[in-house]
Amino acid sequence: MFAGAQLSLYPMTDTFVDVILSSLDALDPWRDRLRIETDDISTLVVGPPEVLFPALRDLYASAASKGHHVVLRATLSRGCPGEPDDPICQTSALANPFEPLASRQQAALDALKSAPDTGQIADAQFSLYVMGAGDHMAEITGCIDFLRSSGTFDRSKNFCTRLTGDAGPVFATLQEAFCRFGPPNGHVTIDLTVSANSPSKR
Amino acid sequence: MFAGAQLSLYPMTDTFVDVILSSLDALDPWRDRLRIETDDISTLVVGPPEVLFPALRDLYASAASKGHHVVLRATLSRGCPGEPDDPICQTSALANPFEPLASRQQAALDALKSAPDTGQIADAQFSLYVMGAGDHMAEITGCIDFLRSSGTFDRSKNFCTRLTGDAGPVFATLQEAFCRFGPPNGHVTIDLTVSANSPSKR
User: Fold this and answer.
1) How big is the A-B interface in CB pairs under 8 Å?
2) What is the predicted ipTM?
3) Is B98 helix (H, G, I), strand (E, B) or coil?
4) For residue B50, what pLDDT band results from cuts at 50, 70 and 90?
5) Given the DSSP bridges, would you call strands B35-38 and B3-11 parallel, antiparallel or unpaired?
6) Cβ–Cβ of A42/B80 closer than 8 Å?
7) Residue A198 has pLDDT above 70, yes or no
8) What does the pLDDT read at residue A81?
9) Thinking of the domain B3-201, which architecture would CATH place it in?
10) Domain ranges of chain A
């Protein structure tokens, strides 16, 4: 299995370099379980979902706490047939896809109960893509049903779904969406945008 | 058919609102062929690919010309089974998917010859997702073969491909990738990031 994300932080301020660099400390508790490589467009973070999502949450919360309008963007992927297996991605977080959809939805809701709060609001928008054999729309609509019950569901938009709430439950909900839906050995991706302190909301 | 994008501009400057608002004029020549709706996270643009991609190109080039580090992000989609047909999306730009891959690759390369230059460099990174019946990895690798010959190919990264060059051929290449690959009646999406004036490149 190979899993990870290409992620970027976009602070809408002249001091964007300082905001980015000072937020990266939030990744420190997770670094020994991740492989990280940066270029001028994005940072590759390779690792299992149960590390990736808390790491993204902490990075986002740290960046948001500076008070500027800042956006975290990530392209997340698991199970891409074009990527090699990597031991660092070994995970126990993926649902057995042969388990019925209703049971996976309930397990996802149960997992949210232990999500900690961060004190930072996250306005998130994302698309879940499920590829390969199987009924990809059944998995996507099954995931959307879970999202509607998750407590952070805001609304559906064309091409994506909005979540809002404390970054803790929001990123936990994203993790459940990523881990519990998709066909056996599926290639599952998420196109994610999380916005903090937007002046359009004031 | 339903096609469109959720797009956002992220100018890394205190004057980000001014940069965004002053760049939107670049959409004016395209507005009568698009449906546009904005909220605090993104702007929905609905319309056919042959209008969408030039409109995104002009928006990007206008924003980049202000000189700040700015990123354009878009979630593009066509043929999503969950979206209704919309007459504004009527298009003649999609390849016949029964046409052999080699022929579609050549048609894509031919189409690039007429791409105009904009004078703005675009560093782009994107993922193409092909869903539904059919061999999605054959279509994706067929698209990547086209990209390698496109003249704007930079390199492959985990989960995505980088293009670089003038925004004219870069957005034309993205349009060809979006239109000519994917199974019959396929659901095809692109997760796109285009970066201008990054200090990390200096």
Assistant:
1) 138
2) 0.94
3) coil
4) very high
5) unpaired
6) no
7) yes
8) 79
9) 2-Layer Sandwich (3.30)
10) 3-201
